[in-house]
Amino acid sequence: MNNKIKVCHLTTVHVRYDTRIFVKECRGLAKQGYEVVLIVADGKGEEVKDGVRILDIGKPSGRIKRFFRFHKILLKKALELGADIYHFHDPELLRIAPNLVKTNSIVIYDAHEDLPRQVLDKAYIPKLIRKPLSRLLEIYEDYIVNKISGIVTVTPTLLDRFLRNNHNVVEVRNFPLISEFVENNTNQDDKGNYVCYVGAISKVRGILNMVNAMQYETGSKFLLGGRFENAKLREMAIASEGWKNVEELGFLNRDQVKEMLQKSVAGLVLLEPTPSYLECIPVKMFEYMLSGIAVIASDYPYWRELVQKENCALFVDPMNPKEISVAIKKLVENRGLAEEMGKRGRKAVLEKFNWANEEKALLSFYNKLRN
């Protein structure tokens, strides 16, 4: 690419090294010859990393200030760049989309999640207003996406929904980067009786049900990596009878995550059946698969549709600790089964459930919008 096309990715919500935005999309575009700028709001300063120029508009003191002021600061910075393509990632930035459209640049909305359905799960929003707010947000989102160049989505449901208002929509699923994970070559006989979870720890991500399941275990341990959403939730988990079989590891760096996975027979991904999770793509499931370990996952139709034929996961009712325990026991006591499931899962990710395939879809979409 002789005359580099300038692409500006925008976010006031996500961290600067966000896996989807920076690691996968921005770095990938830079490697393809695009001039890539990422505008963030974290107060950590400006830098150039892996071919991506990162501009920082400062860190807001809270959610309210971010919502009411920082979109204006970000818009001013974005317009100064004069980019050929503006690619924004936060629903709260929908309001600046019409201003970006006026520049005659390509404007893309990356819908990571189903915003109207997600609102229904937000504990900080009073229950009485969740449904009407959800409906209003859907009307507003549909109105804005009708005016922009295109939308990047992550699920078939979102694809179908946005196609009603814009014919330029593509599904780019958030599958893992193969280079980020190495094969788990630890012999099953050398593994402990461990299952694991690593990531953000919250109620809707199933922490209480996972811990409660461990009360039925007599020879297994649950390795828990990550930070609790709040102190009250941690207290509830500790109060469970199953906590005696939990090893809390706290936040883990990449090497520590690798060590945990090497010790584990299976990884747990047991999101509760909220509207926003029923049809999401559980990235963690594919990360476990790529690491070569078996998976115990929530029994949702879309999740089954994705990987059931790969025969690499046991599906359970995520709200039933006893059923979760039965699945754990099955894999811990049958290492041959766990090993074969892990091998099949890794093979499936290497062949199809990986970012390299999704990146091709994103690049093709960029080319389509430019032509």
From TrEMBL:
Keyword Transferase attached: yes
Domain Glycosyltransferase subfamily 4-like N-terminal: 26-164
Coiled-coil blocks: none
Pfam families, per database record: Glyco_transf_4, Glycos_transf_1
Domain Glycosyl transferase family: 184-347
Source organism superkingdom: Bacteria
Alphabetized UniProt keyword annotations: Transferase
InterPro entries the UniProt entry points to: Glyco_trans_1, Glyco_trans_4-like_N
Keyword Metal-binding in annotation: no
Protein name, as recorded: Glycosyltransferase family 4 protein
Organism of provenance: Flagellimonas spongiicola
Organism classification: Bacteria, Pseudomonadati, Bacteroidota, Flavobacteriia, Flavobacteriales
